[in-house]
């Protein structure tokens, strides 16, 4: 059932090229210049008239929501707010009929996300579900939705659900931008073309597996780890840190790279590994100076870079390359080595990768 892989997590990491393809297959219709999503088409007025979008989720799905915030705001130019479902539901939130709420959940059974979406519905909002499990409670409770089509995700650490959630939300952003006339036809096509190439690029990123394993060997005994990223890759830093925490039990924190100087930089010494997402398109010069700040305090740098990078390569202790891609889609690639890194560290430490202590696949209690 693990298809020859030692763990479900590794199998699911490797399934990502196919899972992403399955997510956009049938939806991207380049020859017609459209994206087909029935759940959006049937309620297009809600999306066109929405004064803002509110995304509700927990854990990894919340991180996908943060990536979507950056993508949708850039494409559609409407404000997007991303909320922890557990906070939203208990604070008498300001929400009304002009809001479109997007509830993101792999399992579709997360209690807090379910309660938050019900509250939004009671307040008149239109609720759109992004779930992986077909027929799940959240998918049934939503007014409409789009499935991620990632296939069953068994490992407690979410992997392919995350990248397919980002894929669906990218399609959603492009579709609304098109319907609102916020994107030119050529730009729209360029985005679709770029998305179509993602599965091959994920394959390529996966080829670094052995290299990532060697890096894991060096840092497996660390007791802390920092993850830094900017822009579209800030949420990827959060996600990388969550992945390491939950399966290896190493304390890790994700930060927007520029926040370093407001506190976390005090933690840096020669014992501290810092994973930096330093791809070429996204605020590259700023990231390079963040790396220099860490180096001058003797921190160890593991950098995720764009293929062919030279500048960061000279500064970092280790680099892991990912293929070139437009900035907004880079999370789909930069996430891959971070998943592999946490996987290998957890295996080397002898942890139960697929069923980490204290965690369940769906959190149906609050
Ligand atoms: O099924 P959901 O997407 O609603 O689950 C949300 C979180 O419980 C989940 O993403 C959790 O954080 C994962 N274990 C992370 O790998």
Ligands (ions, cofactors included):
5-amino-5-deoxy-1-O-phosphono-D-mannitol
Question: How much of the sequence is in beta strands?
Answer: 15-25%
Inertia-based shape: globular
Instruction: State the helical fraction.
Output: 40-55%
Overall SS class: alpha/beta
Query: Which strand order do you get reading across the main beta sheet?
Result: 4-3-5-6-7
| Gyration radius from CA atoms, angstroms | 20 Å
Function: Catalyzes the first step in hexosamine metabolism, converting fructose-6P into glucosamine-6P using glutamine as a nitrogen source.
Domain SIS: 43-182, 215-356
Subcellular location: Cytoplasm
Active site: 361 (for fru-6p isomerization activity)
Would you kindly provide a written description of the structure presented here, covering whatever features stand out?
- The longest helix is centred in the middle third of the chain and has 20 residues, at 160-179.
- The two termini are 31 Å apart.
- The strands form three sheets. This protein has a five-stranded parallel sheet with strand order 4-3-5-6-7, with helices on both faces. A five-stranded parallel sheet has the order 9-8-10-11-12, sandwiched between helices.
- The mean pLDDT is 96.
- The chain is built from 16 helices and twelve strands.
- It is α/β, with parallel strands linked by helices and 366 residues long.
- The protein is globular and about 55 Å long.
- Helix 2 (16-24) packs parallel to helix 9 (160-179), helix 5 (59-76) packs antiparallel against helix 13 (234-248) and helix 13 runs parallel beside helix 16.
- The protein has helices at 8-14, 16-24, 38-41, 44-49, 59-76, 85-88, 111-122, 137-141, 160-179, 185-196, 198-206, 209-219, 234-248, 284-295, 311-315, 331-348, and strands at 28-29, 34-35, 52-57, 80-84, 99-105, 126-131, 144-147, 224-229, 251-256, 273-278, 300-306, 318-322.
- Residues 43-182, 215-356 form the SIS domain.
- Homodimer.
- Its EC number is 2.6.1.16.
- It is an enzyme of class 2 (transferase).
- GO terms for molecular function: carbohydrate derivative binding; glutamine-fructose-6-phosphate transaminase (isomerizing) activity.
């Amino acid at each position: 059932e693990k298809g020859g892989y030692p763990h479900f997590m590794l199998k699911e990491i490797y399934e990502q090229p196919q899972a992403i393809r399955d997510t956009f297959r049938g939806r991207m219709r380049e020859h017609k210049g459209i994206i087909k999503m029935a759940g959006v088409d049937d309620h297009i007025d809600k999306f066109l008239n929405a004064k803002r979008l509110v995304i509700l989720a927990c854990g990894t799905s919340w991180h996908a929501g943060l990536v979507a915030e950056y993508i949708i705001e850039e494409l559609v130019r409407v404000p997007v707010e991303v909320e922890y479902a557990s906070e939203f539901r208990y604070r008498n939130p300001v929400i009304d009929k002009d809001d479109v709420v997007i509830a993101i959940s792999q399992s579709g059974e997360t209690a807090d996300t379910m309660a938050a979406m019900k509250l939004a519905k009671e307040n008149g909002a239109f609720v759109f579900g992004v779930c992986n499990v077909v027929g799940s409670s959240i998918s049934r409770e939503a007014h409409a939705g789009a499935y991620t089509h990632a296939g069953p995700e068994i490992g407690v650490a979410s992997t392919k659900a995350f990248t397919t959630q980002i894929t669906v939300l990218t399609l959603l952003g492009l579709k609304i931008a098109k319907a609102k006339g916020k994107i030119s036809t050529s730009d729209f096509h360029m985005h679709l073309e770029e998305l179509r190439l993602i599965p091959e690029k994920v394959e390529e990123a996966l080829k670094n597996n052995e290299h990532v394993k060697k890096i894991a060997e060096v840092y497996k005994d660390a007791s802390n780890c920092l993850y830094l990223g900017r822009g579209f890759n800030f949420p990827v830093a959060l996600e990388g840190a969550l992945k390491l925490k939950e399966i290896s039990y190493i304390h890790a924190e994700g930060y927007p790279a520029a926040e370093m100087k407001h506190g976390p930089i005090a933690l840096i010494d020669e014992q501290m590994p810092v994973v930096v997402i330093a791809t070429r398109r996204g605020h590259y010069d700023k990231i390079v100076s963040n790396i220099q700040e860490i180096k001058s305090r003797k921190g160890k740098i593991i950098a995720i870079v764009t293929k062919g990078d030279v500048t960061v390569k000279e500064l970092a202790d280790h680099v892991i390359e990912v293929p070139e891609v437009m900035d907004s889609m880079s999370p789909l690639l930069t996430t891959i080595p971070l998943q592999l890194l946490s996987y290998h560290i957890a295996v080397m430490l002898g942890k139960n990768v697929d069923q980490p202590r204290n965690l369940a696949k769906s959190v149906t209690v609050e």
